[in-house]
Design brief:
321 residues; mainly alpha; MetI-like fold; globular
Length: 321
């Protein structure tokens, strides 16, 4: 009888554990398809690229399966010994810094304008100004490529109409670089505008009233009140946008393919990091091992930037507290 009572007393204690196990199994069943998709789409390409980067699969003669072998870190040494890689990397850094600065300036200017009391129909203006962000990047790139065309583009047609010089935008190194910056700004400013509009809504109006009573003008209030109080929302957006600029590919490739090129063997004036890697691996040379090593190096750079951004912005603090 005592043993039977002990068994009866143990059963209720075992029920919660059994329910927890069933809950875990149910959660695992729901997550399994997503985890399998992530493994196939994300994890497997990274592991395969890592494997390819350790082989001598470079050139068309080694393209068939079975005609390449492991060579260790030879591709990494070859990549990191190329001056062109560092030139392209510095170009990408300069492009990211210029674009992110323009994103913030234009986004803040439009956010301040839309939040001004004299503006009417704010919902309509916000909808119109967010449209460039909603259009697919490849559509925007092709439309702007037509507009920047040196012979029959819309921009040069307007310039000729007002008597100004009309450059051949996409064939001159400097103007080609300016063109992709303008297109990138067109596609990205709505994100900053929306982020900063939300930030402006959290700033108490009493601060501006007190500053006005003290004689502070617009610029003094901007740099002493607005920008410092927008830092919690602006800094994460700036960092994430800087990381995104290192992954810029569609716009640049569709508009210029990395050109114009001054001479064979040198990087083009708009050949950013991913465009250069694509041209190295898939535009005739078939440097698959070298391109795989390049992709792993870029992956590590972006991983370091992401971890640094997470630590700087404390983006994941709430998830672990």
């Amino acid at each position: 009888m005592a043993q039977t009572r002990a068994d009866l007393g143990a059963r209720p204690a075992a029920l919660p554990q059994r329910r927890d196990n069933q809950t875990r199994l149910t959660a695992a069943a729901y997550l399994a398809p997503a985890l399998c998709a992530i493994a196939i789409v994300n994890v497997f390409p990274i592991l395969y690229s890592l494997y390819m980067s350790l082989t001598n699969r470079n050139g068309p003669r080694r393209f068939p399966v079975g005609q390449f072998e492991l060579t260790g870190f030879e591709n990494y040494a070859r990549l990191l010994s190329q001056p062109t890689f560092y030139i392209v990397f510095l170009k990408s850094v300069a492009f990211a810094l210029v674009c992110v600065a323009l994103f913030f300036v234009f986004g803040l200017a439009l956010a301040l304008l839309l939040e001004h009391p004299a503006i009417r129909g704010r919902a309509i203006w916000r909808t119109l100004l967010i449209l460039p962000w909603a259009v697919p990047t490849w559509v925007t790139a092709l439309v702007w490529k037509f507009m920047f065309n040196g012979q029959f583009g819309t921009i040069n047609h307007v310039l000729r109409g007002v008597g100004l010089p009309a450059p051949d935008w996409l064939t001159v190194p400097f103007t080609a670089w300016v063109a992709i910056v303008i297109v990138n700004l067109w596609m990205s400013y709505p994100f900053f505008m929306l982020i900063l509009i939300g930030g402006l809504g959290t700033i108490p109006g009493d601060l501006y009233e007190a500053a006005s009573l003290d004689g502070a003008g617009f610029w003094r209030q901007l740099f002493s009140i607005t920008i410092p109080l927008l830092r919690p929302v602006a800094v994460p957006a700036l960092i994430l946008s800087a990381i995104a600029q290192f992954q810029m590919f569609n716009t640049v490739y569709l508009m210029t393919r990395g050109g114009p090129f001054a001479r064979v063997g040198e990087s083009g004036s708009t050949e950013l990091l991913l465009v250069w890697g694509y041209n190295q691996g898939f535009q005739g040379s078939m440097m698959y091992g070298l391109t795989s090593a390049f992709s792993i190096v870029v992956f590590l750079i972006l991983l370091a930037m992401t971890l640094g951004a997470t630590r700087l912005t404390n983006a994941t603090r709430g998830a672990y507290e």
